């Protein structure tokens, strides 16, 4: 029986929820939500027009039981709203909330990274078309204040009032399917999930962007089990996000540096953190504060078209 058979629910959760002090902060909440592969895929299909249970089941290789569970969880998390459109038999549709609709920069950034850096993708990644200029385009990360393109070297980062490593890691494990299933099924984000799909993996990539280079750096900042850190570092080197190098002063030590592929993940990190901090604020204040060095303003990300240099929005782009 599909998710449409559940009894009608009351009003969904507020689009923006304030977290209590000394709880998982906005970044941890964001990773806990987006670190589930089905969440990203269901959000993608919702933004592309899927509304009914059958729409999602026809577009994705997902069982009815898992689809039912995930749709209801997305309603509980505030990403979808559930509306009954037929009483007998009971059927319901799922509309994207504003919170869901504002995930489009994250999905566009993931699409561009996977299309550029994952040559053996399980499905052919479509081109992205910018309706405003009529050209196929790639997104460019810019500062919303001065509209200049940015990379990680242009941004100064500091912990905010609700920041800290322990509060930025989601409680409990995020969910992934086995590697065999991920590569056999179509429409997935295999290497993005190698980073976002595990709470420690996502924290380690963030640590790398914030300057962690040696094994001890990751262990000191995250307090994760040493065996887990070693396993994640090996995995990141295998997929080419990190590169192992000799320590300049100690021959028995190694350093881990972000590769061009790893550095290219930066727009995903920034758009995801921005989304999380806007939708899951804490009473204390933001978890992280970003400053654009060139213009000196608080950094807010935006995406622009590389063909016409205009800011893109969700209504102005389409896959093809």
UniProtKB/TrEMBL annotation:
Domain of life: Bacteria
DNA-binding listed as a keyword: yes
Residue ranges of the region described as Disordered: 155-184
Keyword set, alphabetical order: DNA-binding, Transcription, Transcription regulation
Chain ranges of the HTH hxlR-type domain: 20-122, 186-284
Record InterPro entries: HTH_HxlR, WH-like_DNA-bd_sf, WH_DNA-bd_sf
GO MF, one example: DNA binding
Protein name as it appears in the record: HxlR family transcriptional regulator
Native source species: [Mycobacterium] stephanolepidis
């Amino acid at each position: 029986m599909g998710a449409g058979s559940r009894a009608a629910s009351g009003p969904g959760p507020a689009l923006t929820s304030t977290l209590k002090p000394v709880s998982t902060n906005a970044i941890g909440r964001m990773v806990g939500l987006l670190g589930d592969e089905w969440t990203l895929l269901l959000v993608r299909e919702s933004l592309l027009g899927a509304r009914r249970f059958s729409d999602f089941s026809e577009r994705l290789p997902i069982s009815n039981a898992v689809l039912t569970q995930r749709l209801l969880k997305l309603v509980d998390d505030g990403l979808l709203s559930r509306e009954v459109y037929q009483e007998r038999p009971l059927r319901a549709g799922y509309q994207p909330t504003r919170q869901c609709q504002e995930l489009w920069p994250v999905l566009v950034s993931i699409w561009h990274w996977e299309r550029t850096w994952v040559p053996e993708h399980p499905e052919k990644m479509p081109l992205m078309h910018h309706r405003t200029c009529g050209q196929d385009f790639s997104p460019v990360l810019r500062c919303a204040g001065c509209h200049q393109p940015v990379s990680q070297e242009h941004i100064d980062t500091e912990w905010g009032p609700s920041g800290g490593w322990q509060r930025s890691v989601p409680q409990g494990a995020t969910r992934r399917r086995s590697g065999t299933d991920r590569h056999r099924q179509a429409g997935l984000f295999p290497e993005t999930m190698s980073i976002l799909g595990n709470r420690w993996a996502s924290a380690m990539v963030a640590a790398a962007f914030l300057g962690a280079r040696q094994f001890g750096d990751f262990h000191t900042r995250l307090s994760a089990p040493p065996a887990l850190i070693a396993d994640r570092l090996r995995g990141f080197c295998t997929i080419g996000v990190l590169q192992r190098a000799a320590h300049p002063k100690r021959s028995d030590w190694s350093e881990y540096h972000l590769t061009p592929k790893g550095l290219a993940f930066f727009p995903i990190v920034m758009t995801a953190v921005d989304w999380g901090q806007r939708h899951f604020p804490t009473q204390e204040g933001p978890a992280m504060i970003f400053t654009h060095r060139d213009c000196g303003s608080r950094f807010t990300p935006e995406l622009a078209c590389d063909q016409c240099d205009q800011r893109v929005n969700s209504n102005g782009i389409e896959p093809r």
